[in-house]
Amino acid sequence: MKKALCQAGYYAAAMILVAVILLSFDYNFGEALFVGSMFLPGALVARWIYPKISFARRGEGIRDCLFVTLGILAAELLFVLLAHYFIRRFRTDPGALFVADVADALLNPVFIALILLVLVAGDLWLSGLLERVWPTSEQPLRIISDRREITLRPSEIRYIESNDDEVWILATEGRRFRNKTGISQWEALLGEDFLRIHRSYLVNRAFVTGFSPEEVHLAETTLPVSRKYRERVRALAEIVNS
How far apart are CA 22 and CA 62, in angstroms? Predict the structure, then answer.
């Protein structure tokens, strides 16, 4: 709740700042605030959708970024023109053309993109600051599996199995996800809550139900322990059994 209120306050302040900038375009403050608020939808859409674009296939990722960018810029241009149209209706002749009097900068995609970039960058900076002040207990992971983005909490992962040039992520409720990230990278990412027991297996300690010198049991699943990682497993077993 605190984070949401802070981010809402950020966007309210950002809209006021944009309105101050737009005062130089011969708007009064109310009109400038109205036109400035038209940048809010584009900023929120950009903040939400760009992190979801997958670059597993670089060409497709670049293409998706281009299409999203063009769509946002086109929508923002339409919003600005509509806002100016309503302003003109309240100012003078309702039948007057409204495009001719729009400031050139507001019809410039580069200017629009710059404002959106600043708004999103400020949001990202604030999000990082808020996370340091009020850290989330468990950060969800975004992974690409079969060209789909999956959001998964570390606590939902039972174990990870390496298979040649890909890994399988075995999660709760029998879910299985295929991913290209190497198991060593997963080990570094997931940290101490996960235990490497084999060059092919990384297990979530919370799901371990039993040990033997050469095996680790996760309920009905039994995984082998290699000689290289046997001491780690033995140390964990001693801690659990003590």
Answer: 32
Q: What is the dihedral of CA 142, 143, 144, 149, to 10 degrees?
A: -30
pLDDT in tens, 105-147: 888 999 999 999 999 999 989 988 887 787 766 678 888 888 8
Dist CA 157 CA 19 (whole Å): 47
Question: Residue 56 pLDDT > 60, yes or no?
Answer: no
- Reduce the secondary structure of 77-122 to three states and give it as a string: HHHHHHHHHHHHHHHCCCCCCCCCCCCHHHHCHHHHHHHHHHHHHH
Does residue 49 carry a pLDDT above 50?
A: yes
Residue in the structure block whose two tokens are 């299985």: 176
Domains and CATH numbers, the chain: 2-133 (no CATH), 153-241 (2.40.50.1020)
The CA-to-CA distance between both ends of the chain, in Å, stands at 41
Arithmetic mean of pLDDT over the chain: 84
Q: Is 1 exposed, middle or buried (0-12, 13-18, 19+ CB in 10 A)?
A: exposed
